[in-house]
């Protein structure tokens, strides 16, 4: 829908999306950084239950954008759906603001957040694509900045909301501390929406076909009813782990069946690319099992077994709140991304750039080293607590692996999947990532600490046993990735010789 000679510059249009995306990520990560700890410390959940509830929520959060993109394209319009998603997210965080310890209320609030994220995420990214439609150079630069918005918003909120919880809790009561911190996430969305209101004219010419006219009432009613169904189904899944497991495992089987059916039924020239996409998708699923540890086992590990003081030469520099360690992921990605981009460009100029499959293998090496770092820290632990610097370097290695594996996920789909099935396959990819998020929570439960264990000396070997096992699994993934390199080279060559029309370039702004 982008028109010729738009009334405002691309930069102003992009700034509007950039800012609302920054505030949306501020709200989401501010909520995520506290959620598992909130369920354990405030609602009295067992660690195993809190891990699984958040794992199911993360799975739903990744799955619903496939529906939101369809709604934006066909029913409400890209711009209108993005805005609706931001409003729904604001309501979801506001529900967490309400000072109640009712678990059902939490499930409903998370269901609202699942819906809001599904409406917002795909359409915000699509608006950026539409702003720079046809300009490959500018769209790459735009998504680089867009990705920075994700990490700026998430870093600030992951540092801020734990501090707000502690400060308000200390002065006005623990319950008010938790809910005020969640309320700040809602305030972030309010600020984003206010800013959007004043800048809305910059996007008046950008969107999909339904954005051009007022949507038919039947479309609006249909989306509202469908949204209420998604909230209700999400709440039901979150409060019943048997249903959650059935849904997740059924989705995993369905994705494998779809891949198998497509590989069997497509033309011979398209088969090599789909097989390559399947191999790399499975490797990506393994990565997100590691990724889910950040908000589950690693978060709880920081609560029990990490010295929160950052010291140098015997002097304390500063102290962190346990949840704030999760911000290291975003901080390291901001530091490492430009270095890797420079390396890719330098290697590319000399014709020595690594293939995607090789980057996946290197990514798993880094992830394995990161988890071994926590086990290494246990050898120098004092009274059952490791130095905070081990967390810094562990997160650094893990984040390097994230950039090499997760950051290439959607690029891999674009490279190997035929254009005519690109949208469907990207939706399947996100569902697969959601499945792996839940599986990551299941893995985290191998280090779930019983409520009667409070001594760090007892919990330390339980956590480090899991992290060392994950390190060995990372080595196993590396070996498999290296073993697959000859096959991937052959599949890539066959795919290139077939000259299959690729999906237009896509970007994973969340890495």
UniProtKB/TrEMBL annotation:
Q: Where would you say this protein principally sits, based on its record?
A: membrane
Q: Which InterPro entries match?
A: Dipep/tripep_permease, MFS_trans_sf, POT_fam
Compartments reported by the entry? Cell membrane
Name any one GO molecular function. tripeptide transmembrane transporter activity
Q: What name appears for this protein in its UniProt entry?
A: MFS transporter
Q: Which residues cross the membrane?
A: 22-40, 52-72, 81-98, 104-120, 141-164, 176-198, 219-237, 243-263, 272-291, 325-344, 356-376, 396-417, 429-449, 469-488
Spell out the Gene3D superfamilies in the cross-references: MFS general substrate transporter like domains
Would you name any one GO CC term?
plasma membrane
**Pfam families (UniProt xref):** PTR2
**Taxonomic superkingdom:** Bacteria
| Annotated SUPFAM superfamilies | MFS general substrate transporter
Q: How does it sit in the membrane?
A: Multi-pass membrane protein
Protein's GO biological process: tripeptide transmembrane transport
Q: Any keyword Membrane?
A: yes
According to its UniProt record, which protein family does this protein belong to?
Belongs to the major facilitator superfamily. Proton-dependent oligopeptide transporter (POT/PTR) (TC 2.A.17) family.
Q: Does the keyword Acetylation apply?
A: no
**Keywords per UniProt:** Cell membrane, Membrane, Peptide transport, Protein transport, Transmembrane, Transmembrane helix, Transport
Q: Where would one find the signal peptide in this protein? A: none
